[in-house]
Amino acid sequence: MQRDARLTEIVTLVRQRGYMSIEALAQHFDVTPQTIRRDINDLSAQDLLQRHHGGAGLNSSVHNTAYAARQVQNLAEKRRIAQLCAQHIPGDSSLFINIGTTNEEVARALLHHTGLRVITNNLNVAAILCENRSSEVIVAGGVVRSVDRAIIGEATIDFVRQFRVDVGIIGISGIDIDGTLLDFDYREVRVAQAIIENSRQVFLVADHSKFERRPMVRLGHLSQLTAVFTDKMPSNAICELLAQHEIQLHVAAGE
Asked: 52-71 in b/e burial notation, b at 16+ Cβ within 10 A?
């Protein structure tokens, strides 16, 4: 079996059973435990599985990957997604941009757009887009989450609800197989829900690792979106949902 096929099947087995030991996986694939350890390390680095002593399990539904790790995970893919998303945003547009490392790459991709008005609860996004002198950045009030400079809380929600913008750009931590949008922090989720409610169009930017990942807090559903920007074709089930609800799918595939 080719390594890519083996990696895909490892993820499938762990999702079916919740946990697989290195020994059981080595026997299943008729390879050495050292080979399985390397496979699990690679899958863990892609945030597809969680590495445990002696095996692999599902990613936590309670704790997100550390922000510093998320900044570098799938970075090339996030940059491709950001560039593609930016191509669908005209100058002189009003935008919400919320929390997430992919959203920060979108901000960088918008640096040469003119006349933007951007409302954000992400201090990293604000710092990036302040370099674009032809655009205006409005920062939401609220509580600053020090780990990633996100702004959250009731004051943030109230601030967002004062606006009605052309495009809301949101990130996500997980997309379940039934199209449910999921995240880890209910306070962050409530801000994202307000963004969805007050945007004429909603663009979701999410790399392939977010599909079928299962954080515990429900944000919404794919049907509430206008378009999804990702780097690999999602599963048939997700594609069928997108088609059913007439959601545009844009894939920023690599070379």
From this structure: eeebbebbeeeebbebeebe
Which pLDDT tens digit goes with each residue over 19-63?
Answer: 788 999 999 999 999 999 999 998 888 777 878 778 887 665 544
18 and 118 in one domain? no
| Whole-prediction pTM | 0.76
DSSP 8-state class, residue 122: B
Helix (H), strand (E) counts: the chain:
10, 15
In a domain, 240, yes or no: yes
Q: In Å, how far are 72, 153, 223 from 104, measured between CA atoms?
A: 12, 20, 24
3-state secondary structure of 226: coil
pLDDT of residue 59: 66
Which CATH number do you get for residue 217?
Answer: 3.40.50.1360
By residue range, what is the domain housing residue 24? 3-57
